[in-house]
Every structure is written in C-alpha cells, then in structure tokens.
Amino acid sequence: MKYNIKNILCGTIACMALVSCSSFLDESPDSELTNENWGSGDKDNATEYTTATQMEQLLTGAYGDFANEFWQLDWYIMNDAQADNAYAGENKDQTTQIDELRISASNGGVKRDWGYLYSHISKANTIIEWAPKITDAALTEKRRAEITGDAHFMRAICYFNLVRIYGSVPLITQYVPEISLENIDEIYPLLYPTKETVENIYAQIVSDLEYAEANVMDYSTDKFKITKALVHLIQAQVYATKDGFEGTDWNKVKQYAKAVVDDSRYGMMDNYDDLFAVSETPANGVLPSVNLVNEHCKESIFEVDYNSWSTLGNWGAQMFYGIDWKKFNTPSQDLYKAFTSAGDIVRRDASITFGDVTGKWTDKFWPSNKYPYCYKLRSQEAGNIVLFRLPEAILLLAEAENELGNIAEAKNQMNKVRTRVKLPNTTASTKDNMRLAIENENRFEFAFEGKRWMDLKRRGRFIQVMRACTDHQNEYAARLNENKLIWPIPQSELDLNVNLEQNPGY
Questions:
Q1: Section 353-363 average pLDDT
Q2: Do 443 and 490 sit in the same domain of this protein?
Q3: What is the CATH number of the domain that holds 303?
Q4: 168 inside domain
Q5: Which letter does DSSP use for residue 424 in this model?
Q6: pLDDT band at 350 (very low <50, low <70, confident <90, very high)
Q7: How far apart are CA 61 and CA 210, in angstroms?
Q8: Is 401 a domain residue?
Q9: CA count, 13 A, side-chain hemisphere, 80
Q10: Do 68 and 191 fall within a single domain?
C-alpha cells in the first residue's frame, strides 16, 4: 500500500518528516523539500546513513540553514522593524503587518519562519538519530561527539527562537522515519503533534545546550563553527529569558556570560566600524561582492561564511541597502535621534547611511535627497554575516552583575563597550538606572543586527517602550497587549492539524 504524503500532509510539520527521510547529500541549503522518496512502504529502500562522509554532509546541510531566509532577512524584520529601530520601508503587506503590530495568522512570514525553524530541527534530529549508529572507522569518537553536539545546539537555538516567537509550540525531538503501513500509528503523532508547554520546551532547550556544552569543539578560528563560547552565550540568553525578568536566575546568567567574557581568545575590535568594513564602496546603489575586511575576527563568536552564489551567497545585504527599489527596514527617526542625543556618533554612522532617491520614490518620514539605509551589511554574495559577537556576553554580564547588586562591576563591563565607541563612562548609579542604561546600550550596539524586539520582550518592556516611541510607530502601540507579544500559529498549520490550537488573541 502506498501513502501519498503530498496530498495528505502539506504543512511544515510534515515537511519535517520529509527532510528527515530525503537525502541531504545533493541538496543545497535553500532547495525545496520534496517527497519523492515517500510512500513506497518498502523498508529495503528506506534511507540509511552508514558512513562518516554522509554524517559530514548531513552536518554541512544543517549548517547551511543558518544562511536561509530566516537568518538573512526575517530575523532583522521581526527584531528591528517590529520594534522602534526601523519601519517596514518596502510596502509589502506581510512586512507592514509586522511593522504596524497587526500581524495575522495568514501572514506569509509567520508561515515561512515556522517552516524554516522546524526544517532545521528536522535536520538536527536526523543527525542525532543516526550519528551514534555509524560504524565507519573514519568517524572517530571525538568527531562523532562534535557532530552530535552541534546538532543538539542547532535544535536548541531553533526551539529558543520558536518559543520566543510563537510561545507554546510542538516539541519534536524524534527522527521521523519513512512512513509505511506498519508504522503509520507510530508516525501519526509526529506529523500531527499538539503544542507543548513553554516550560517543557525550555527544559528541552536547557538539556540540549548542556549536551552541546560537553561535546562541541572548544574553539575555532573559523567562526562558522559551533563552539563552547557560542553555547555559553546562548545559555546565558536562555537563562535571562525563560523565567521572566523577575524570576531570572542571575547567577546562571553570570556564570555563562562570564565564561565567554573571560575567554582570552576573544576580544573587541579596536574600531567599531571595522566589524562591518569592506574594501569596496557601493556603486550606483549596488553593494560589492567582496569579503569583509575582518571576517572571522576576534570579536566574532559565530558568523555565516558566505563565499559565492554557487555555494552560500549573501543576498540579504541587498534587502536593506540600495536605490533600485525601496528596501526593507528603513531606520526610524526615533533611533537616529536617540543616537544623536546620546552623542553616539560612531555607532550611528556605522549603522545608518544616507542616499539620494529623488525621482525614484517618496517617503512619508524621510526626505528623498537624504533617505536612510541600514548599513551594517555592506557586501553581497561573499560578505559574511556575524550573528553573535562578544559584546552580547559583556552586556549580559553587566546586567547580571547589576541585578546581583554589583553595580561597580556592572559599570566596568558596560564601559568596555562604551569606551570603544568614544563615549564617556556611564553615569548610572542605581540598579534601576543601570537597567535602563544597559537596555539602551544594547539598542545602540546591536541596531540592525536582529536583537531589539526579543531583548525588549525578555525585559518586559516592549509595550512600554513602543508607546513611548517618539516616531510614528507609537500609534501602532495602541494595538499591543500581552497576547500580542508572541505571533500567531500559522493558519496553514491549523488547517492541516486539528491537534493545534491558535494562540490567544488571534
């Protein structure tokens, strides 16, 4: 008997199974999922992995997901345009919905990001299932441990993003084998899962990160590798998020953030702009196709190693810069004024550049002859994207020290970040003042790096900050309530899976 899975299951959770069962060996990171191997019911033709080479190829495919649309585009829209750093810019409804805080369950981005994250989880589950079974002598025990450690980290960071974006979601930690008449009852719950509690999802995240901490490689000069510093940074972020701001175990945040800060193999670049510098300047609104001048630098904890369109290419940079069409994530008046008011000219000018778009389009909020662009991604195709860097750990450590009553040490850590951009030491002198100072420091340090929305949410400050925004975006904040702090479950998933329930308020 054959099962036509394409007709039965078109949703993303089904895609998780499809990814698990199709070969990654010839699959590019952004290729569409197919179901050509499904439905035979013939166990002799079931996918099996038996060699060290196959494990490495599976891992390469999973690493490639850090270059998909979630990380190249949507990460920045949801975190900067949804907050007060930027507004939609390009007038696509699915993007303006996010910017204007009126997102719907049928929004294409809601569906797309759910799909990308669960697809990555499926790849991680496949590795976790098969790596222990490989008997090929070419797969050393040390390498087997690193591969499975990487996969556990990937699963953890995907669920960390899912739970922050959608709240309670299905928790799939099992490899989904090819379906047959004999295993349909076993497979069915994996294809039509219910939502798991937020608490249990975080418990899985913590467990996966602990496994990764014990097994990933210690350090690499190639920053497109998962290392202990990256695991420790995400552990600090998880502990700063999972129990709400008032319930945070700040000793845990300090433990993991300090592990990164104290690692002498990492350090801040002398000049802030050096993080984003390229050797060529844009011409006619088109970004050059060159490497970062300082790719894999000492400040980088994890960056995606882009090199060419034929392998991994950085197309996301052109989504934020150029004059050929109105781009995504127009910097907000609120952010530009905040930079200027704080005297933070170094980070302002590294983050925002201006162009003349006269005769091309008009904008309600900026003049055509001085139209702003996000300027941290300055090279297409070969320009690496740094996803995580050292100051995240430094500011988390400052925050933990402040909450633990060590204000002097909190100042010491934060001033490291301020000194680099030629700002004076902070004048904050109380715990409450330091909280706000650290929040603002995060905004200025990581503008347009995909951090703001999630940072404000974990602090319990998103609604308050958006209502106080000096830009037109404060008008949208009237729509906000506690239910709107997470996105809806994609309508397409609800239509296919009767066991899913929509989030309250949608």
A1: 93
A2: no
A3: 1.25.40.390
A4: yes
A5: P
A6: very high
A7: 23
A8: yes
A9: 30
A10: yes
- 90 compared with 333, residue with greater pLDDT: 333
Name residues whose C-beta falls within 8 Å of residue 382's C-beta, 6 or more positions apart in sequence.
Answer: 289, 290, 291, 306, 307, 308, 313, 314
**Residue that is written with structure tokens 């200025």 in the block:** 444
The burial of 251, by beta-carbon neighbours within 10 Å (0-12 exposed, 13-18 middle, 19 or more buried), is given as exposed
pLDDT value at residue 247: 98
Classify residue 254: in a domain, yes or no. Answer: no
Residue 107, in any domain of the structure = yes
Q: Report the distance separating Cα 495 and Cα 274, nearest Å.
A: 48
- The reply to whether 180 and 281 lie within a common domain is no
Which pLDDT does position 14 carry in this prediction? Answer: 45
pLDDT at 484 over 50: yes
pLDDT value, residue 187:
85
Residue 2, pLDDT above cutoff 60: no
Tally of domains in the chain? 2
Find the domain containing 141 and state its range: 5-197+486-496
Statement: residue 6 has pLDDT above 80: no
Do 126 and 270 reside in the same domain of the chain? no
Question: Are 445 and 490 found together in one domain?
Answer: no
Residue partners of 125: CB distance under 8 A and separation at least 6 = 16, 20, 151, 155, 172, 173, 174, 175, 176
- In this predicted structure, what is the pLDDT of residue 46? 56
Residues 6+ apart with CB under 8 A from 92: none
Asked if residues 415 and 395 have their Cβ atoms less than 8 Å apart, the reply is: no
User: Rounded to whole angstroms, how far apart are CA atoms 66 and 450?
Assistant: 14
174 and 103, same structural domain? yes
Do 425 and 491 belong together in one domain?
no
SS3 labels along 361-409: CCCCCCCCCCEEEECCCCCCECCCEEEEEHHHHHHHHHHHHHHCCCHHH
Neighbours of 309 (CB within 10 A): 13
In the numeric block, the tokens 């009767």 are attached to: 498
Closest CA to 389 of 307, 318, 296, 321: 296
Q: With 50 as the cut, is the pLDDT of residue 142 above it? A: yes
Mean pLDDT, rounded, for 3-27: 38
